[in-house]
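Methods, example record. To illustrate the input and output format used throughout this study, we show the complete record for ADP-ribose pyrophosphatase YjhB, NUDIX family. The sequence lines were provided to the predictor; the line carrying structure tokens was produced by it.
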Amino acid sequence: MAIPEFIREIREKAGNTLLFLPGVVTVVFDDRGRILLNRRADTGKWALISGIPDPGEQPAEAAVREIEEETGVHAVVERVLSVFTNEPVTYPNGDRAQYIDIVLRCRAVGGEARVNDDESLDVGWFALDELPPLGPIARGRIELALRDDPTWFAPAAPAGPAHRGYAAP
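The corresponding predicted structure is encoded as:
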């Protein structure tokens, strides 16, 4: 996964300190109802298209940019599906990060799905009944995109000691 230059600059000063970062995750549909996925170069697993907004970039702008950079597909954002803080991750080099993901439903409006950068090993459109293996969080986000529910978010914990254990769709 390409590390944005501004993150490299922060890491030079902060080392492996836990960084709390924004992320955008997209559920992109084409006019046939298929979903755009990429097989990530860093994990080898199929995933929804995602990335980190640049400083000053709006989440929708970042989503459209990431989709095009990674897949060659032009898209528009239709709505916010969910907002969720993920568990912290530690990368092989020791860097630690925690992402607050803004998940967006998008619609393809042009371009051709292809590997368009070094972040993907493969890119493709998948019918809902032919999805490759995906984790429960990605599947939950796809389910949200298929419904017309309000934006999902983890509710605030009740007053008192902090409560955890909310499952992210």
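Annotations derived from this record:
The mean pLDDT is 92.
The CA atoms of residues 46 and 132 lie 7 Å apart.
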